Structure formats: C-alpha cells, structure tokens
Amino acid sequence: MRVLVTGGCGFIGTAIVDLLLRRGIQVVNLDKLTTSANPAALSEWEGTPRYEVVQGDICDLEKILSVLENFQPDCIIHAAAETDVDRSLQSTAQFLQTNFVGTYTMLEAARHWWAGRGGDYRFLHISTDEVFGGLSDSDPGFSEQSAYAPNSPYAASKAAGDHLVRAWGQTYGLPVVTTHCSNNYGPWQFPEKLIPLMITNGADGEPMAISGAGHIVHDWVHVEDHAQAVRTVLEHGENCATYNIGGSSDQPHVEIVHMICVELDRRFPDRAPHSRMIQHIDDTRAEDARYAVDTSKIWRELRWRPETEFRSGLSRTVDWYLENRPWWQKIRQNRATGAADQRAA
C-alpha cells in the first residue's frame, strides 16, 4: 500500500506516519513544515526508501497534483489542520484557509487525479469531536449522528471541512471516510497543550495554571491508539461513513493536573508536593464544559478499542517528557524569544 499523509509532521500526523511505516507501508508526508511541524519525531525513518517528506501547502492545487502523479498513492490520509482553539480566536482567517480551503483543495486534487482510474482508493479525513459542540454532565457522548454545533472558529472551520468531505463523497462518488477524535495526548505533543504544559511547568518549577476551577471535562485518547484507529478505518471502514475515536476516559482538567503532580512527586520526592504549584486563573473565554464521544460504532463494526488506560498512558507520557527535556526546552525558549521580539516591535 502507498499512502499520502498530509500534515504528517504534526503531533497526530507523526504518530500515524510512524505506525504506517512500521507496518511496511510506503508513505509520502506532505507538510508545510511551519514552526509547529516536528520532523524530529520521524527522524529514524529519514533516508529509508519507503518514506519521503515533501514540503508543500495543501492549498496549492498544482503541488498536490504533482505529488499525486509522482507518488501514485492508493490512499490519502488528510491530517493537516490548524488545531489550536485559542489561536483561532485571533487568527480566524488562517484557520478557514487551512481547514476549509485546504480540505477543498485536497478533495479536488483527489477527485481529478482518481477520475477514471481503477482500484480501491480512499480519502480519509481526520476531524474532531469539537464540531458537535459541548455536553452537559448528564448527556451521553456524541454519536456519529449527533448534530453539528461548533462553538469556536476552530471547530467551525473543521465542521466546514467535514461538510465538504461528505458532499464530495455524495456528489462525485469520491471514496471518503471521516473520523472524529477526542483529545489526544502522548509523546511529541507541543508543550503549550494542557498535559505537556503541566508536565514541563512542573518539571521546571513553574506555576501549573488551570483556567477557572478546572472542571472542564474531556475524553482523552493516547495518540498511538488514535493512529491504530485511523489505520483500522483506512483498511476496513465503509465508504462515506463516519467513525468516532476516543479513549473512553473522561477526565476533568483539575484531576489531570493533580495526577501529573503525583507522578512528579514520585520522580522528584525532594520537590514534593508539586500540587503547591497549582494556580487557578480567571478565564473569561467561552469554552465547552465537556466533550465525549460514543465509540460503540467503531467497536461494533471494526472491532477497535483503545489499548492504553489513561493513568498508565499519562505516567509513560510524563517519563517521555522528562527524558526528552532538550526538545521541549528549545521549543519553549524559541517561543519566548519570538514573543519578546513581537513585544519589542
């Protein structure tokens, strides 16, 4: 099998590419290689004949068609996306350009390139549970039939891309499939996200700040489990179907931070208790109180379930960040320098 992965140098993309390569699949990784890209996560595959990184923008139709013609893939996994909710509030146009226009361009490239060709092709679009909005404490998790109700520019831009994918499948017969995943965690996640931010701040003796009371609840899935689910859907999912992917592990933010403190106490007992560094900060931004997905369909139809229990996965994630301190410290330093330069300008 030959698979083109867009955004394969992102957090989720690198996990997917790594898994495909370990399964003996040939991969071309099309990535814009911005400052949020992380090719280091795939450094062990550099120079191997089954793997190639191509720098390119998913909004560049000619570039995409050239890659398709040269690589002749059997499948496309469209993982490229702008994903930071907070940044989407200030950079909405960028999110619409990547998540809406970029998805449109990828669909058009796939449609034109696959037209008239034989074979069992597939276009797999990776989306998020945030397109469905928020849940109350008593609501069941979102199903594949849940109504769309995005509550942020990020979620709206992803929802718009989802609708394009469905339309291209229904109108043009493009063999598409969409996945909606809950929050991911694990190695190589950039340190501005909740779990790595709390780990790295705690390890550096910095405040572990939680927005509000920390009662926001998300379902968490380990990124390696997500990659396994994507591979399963790619190989066995039904055309024009959608599948929810989750970890079946609803966790309040405040509880996650306390779990991280316990893990750090075990590793650095002389600095315990790390919980003294927890701070609650006021945050007036509107944020959905709870996200969760019902994963019964992917289990019933494709026999996929997450393998990683949250506490053990979190413990392994803490170890990974402590063992890879130079990687995240460099990112933090670069971003601090960039922020200082912007203030000076």
What value does the average pLDDT take?
92
Q: How many helices?
A: 11
Q: Strands across the major sheet, in which order?
A: 3-2-1-4-5-6-10
Percent of residues in helices comes to: 40-55%
Largest sheet: 7 strands, parallel
Number of strands: 12
The SSE string, one letter per element, is: EHEEHEHHEHEEHEEHEEHEHHH
Task: Return Rg in Å.
Answer: 20 Å
Given helix and strand content, the structural type is alpha/beta
What fraction strand? 15-25%
* Poorly predicted ranges: 340-345
Distance between the termini: 50 Å
Overall shape: globular
What is this entry, summarized?
The protein is an alpha/beta fold and 345 residues long. It contains 11 helices and 12 strands.
Description:
The chain starts with a strand and ends with a helix. It is built from eleven helices and twelve strands. 44% of the residues lie in helices and 17% in strands. The strands form three sheets. Strands 3-2-1-4-5-6-10 form a seven-stranded parallel beta sheet, sandwiched between helices. It has a three-stranded mixed beta sheet with strand order 7-9-11.
